[in-house]
């Protein structure tokens, strides 16, 4: 699906592959800040420990965006 929407990869993609992977890993949504950072080519890590309310994305600067 990602390659059909954005040509594959993250940088500049309408739907970054990493966002698609996060959905596949159980994310119910992807915050806009996460998608925008990935489109710029930044690495954003989806951390899944414990309950879904405890999951978060770790941004390049160390900031965390909660999933739940």
Identify the notable features of this structure and list them briefly.
68 residues; alpha+beta; 3-stranded antiparallel β-sheet; 3 strands; 13% strand
Structural summary, described in words:
With 68 residues, the chain is an alpha+beta fold. Helices cover 31% and strands 13% of the residues. It contains 3 helices and 3 strands. It has helices at 2-6, 17-24, 32-39, and strands at residues 45-47, 56-58, 64-66. The protein has a 3-stranded antiparallel β-sheet, with no helix packed on it. A hairpin with a 5-residue loop joins strand 2 (56-58) and strand 3 (64-66). The longest helix is centred in the N-terminal third of the chain and has 8 residues, at 17-24. The protein is globular and about 30 Å long. The N and C termini lie far apart (25 Å).
Give the topology:
Layout: H1 2-6, H2 17-24, H3 32-39, E1 45-47, E2 56-58, E3 64-66
Antiparallel strand pairs: 1-2, 2-3
Question: Low-confidence spans: pLDDT under 50, at least 5 residues?
Answer: none
Strand count, sense and barrel status of the largest sheet are:
3 strands, antiparallel
The helix fraction, in percent, is 25-40%
> What is the gyration radius calculated from CA atoms?
11 Å
- The SS-based structural class is alpha+beta
Individual helix count: 3
Shape: globular
**What percentage of amino acids are in beta strands?**
5-15%
Order of helices and strands: HHHEEE
Strands in their spatial order, largest beta sheet: 1-2-3
How confident is the prediction overall: mean pLDDT? 91
């Amino acid at each position: 699906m990602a390659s059909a929407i954005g040509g594959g990869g993250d940088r500049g993609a309408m739907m970054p592959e990493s966002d698609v992977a996060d959905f596949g890993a159980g994310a119910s949504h992807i915050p806009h800040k996460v998608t925008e950072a990935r489109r710029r080519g930044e690495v954003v890590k989806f951390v899944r420990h414990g309950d879904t309310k405890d999951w978060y994305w770790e941004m390049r600067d160390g900031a965390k965006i909660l999933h739940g």
